[in-house]
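Hi Y.,

Following your request, here is the sequence exactly as I used it, all 438 residues.
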Amino acid sequence: MTARLGTEGCELNTPKTAKFDVRRIYKGGTKTLIFRVFGVSLLFGLHILLGNALGPAQYGLYSFALSVTGLLMSFAALGLPTALMRYVVQYKEQQKLNELKGALQQLPAFALLASFVFSALILIVAIPLLDGHEWGQGLRYSTLLLPVFVLEQIRRNLYKGYARPIGSIMPDEIIRPIALGACVWLLQIKAGSTAITLYLAITTVLAAGFLAWLYRDVGRPLSGPSAKYETKEWFATALPMAYGSIGYLMINQTDVVMLGILKEMRLVGVYSAANRIAMLCQIILGTAAIIAIPMITAAYHGSRMHEYRNILGHTRIWIVTLTLPLFLVMIAFPQMILSMFGDDYVEGAWILRILATGQFVSAVAGPLGLALSMTDRQKILATVMLLAGVLKVFLNFVAIPVWGAIGAATVTMLCLLLINITLLMIIHRSISSAFTSK
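Below is the corresponding structure, written out as tokens. Let me know if you'd prefer a different format.
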């Protein structure tokens, strides 16, 4: 689906005394954008290949299964992979090798165990009730994918915690699209179930391989100290993180999931193709966040609110300048763009226009989510996202049975508009109160 209000995993190493230089946004952002475009192009090319090879119904099954898995992942992993990233950074900085060793041993194990238990419960309780439903097959595949998604998240977060960006980005943004695309093309895959199976196998091999590589390197300095387990503290930190991510996942995944449940997989396929295109508006936003968020954080904690406001303003200028042409092309030529997925997808022209409008609004607003989470307002952000996610589920129950994919797209656009207006008001109030208190 939709909005990612920022980019996760930014490294906040900027000193508090750093001075604002607008050139860092424009030059640094442009350089970073080049690398991100390469990875996004590979992923987008993979989905074009899948859309053409599978057709709308089978591509819809593939998209539905991955969306359901993403939605369930926060419940299944209990926030433990995110807590793992935090404690790796913290314990490394504090030279607490005993606690670091304990976290590396216990948190991944608990996260994987929880994901297997969660998958088993779904298989035992829910799936027998779904025989005869088209989306029951997608849910079955989700139970297989769920532990693999958690393993992948552990791998990604550990590499971020150890400040190894190549290991964080390379498997899922470079290697997997190339490997899966080659398999689909060479084997002439036509079934969504086969594509999901290949996705599962490739992701498992990559996640396990890269994790083994990382543990081999970091295990050497940890071979001496005995492990110390702060289980109670780790869970106390992880569970609120899970609560915060649930709102994001409800915003990002529920439209595809509910469209599959309430309508049919063919519509899911058309909608997913349009959504994949609309999400390209987020490339500039994500790139800007990588550059601007450390600067925003340093300015805020250094009580330099003029600088804080200027960084947000210049970041928006950079985002609008680069995103507007792409958005206008989507609005003007939606059928031509959708035809890259195949002729059966061009009926989603208005879906693309509506979703692109929502994504453009989200991009123009700037990296508001990360700006709040990195300036001591993460609980406010989590509450806003969770309430918006609940609202979106309710509106989808009303809109999808009547208007189908158009209804789902409209609800997504309205929720993105509401979220960004709310976050803008919160940030504006925080800046105003900071100036007032001086």
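The chain has a mean pLDDT of 81.

Thanks again,
Q.
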